[in-house]
Amino acid sequence: KQEVTQIPAALSVPEGENLVLNCSFTDSAIYNLQWFRQDPGKGLTSLLLIQSSQREQTSGRLNASLDKSSGRSTLYIAASQPGDSATYLCAVNSGNTPLVFGKGTRLSVIA
Amino acid sequence: GAGVSQTPSNKVTEKGKYVELRCDPISGHTALYWYRQSLGQGPEFLIYFQGTGAADDSGLPNDRFFAVRPEGSVSTLKIQRTERGDSAVYLCASSQGAGELFFGEGSRLTVL
Q1: Do A100 and B105 touch (CB under 8 A)?
Q2: Which end of chain B is more exposed for a tag (fewer CB within 10 A), N or C?
Q3: What percent of chain A shows pLDDT beyond 70?
């Protein structure tokens, strides 16, 4: 059974810092991995999708990497801003099975 | 529609009542998913539809929960004899095949 772990559970940084969020998964036979953002009381917004054959994806200040063999992904946020404050969720798709989510990392960027 | 639409956004009910939650996926998306999210947790899978049929309902917690998607578009999640433990945010998502998932804003259910 696929399990997804995200570390740290919560993170507080001053504005302008670069930061890394970590995601690990137990079964490396994945189809793709997706990073989401969730604001309080809201649904999930897709940030980046990495296919199993890819090593990384970039969107603006966000860069997500995937190391399938070691069961790890990282989300790198450059030059963080207060508007980046949210919960970031990692989810793994193993093909014919539904997305399995981690519990998320709650990020606070302090102005 | 432009995105996944869920109604109602908030539902308060009494223990023992019946509840229906509706999801309208992105037009043309064949796959539809229901997840449940409790406070401080990641979303937990409930059921997944491919077209009109439930491809995987292994996440439904018990037989009080049921979902339908009769025409392969809109889906309804039905909860019978609600219990306080059913209180959560119910999230719906859709995708084109096994691609990127797009989520709605969720339906917050509170059972008193």
Answers
A1: no
A2: N
A3: 99
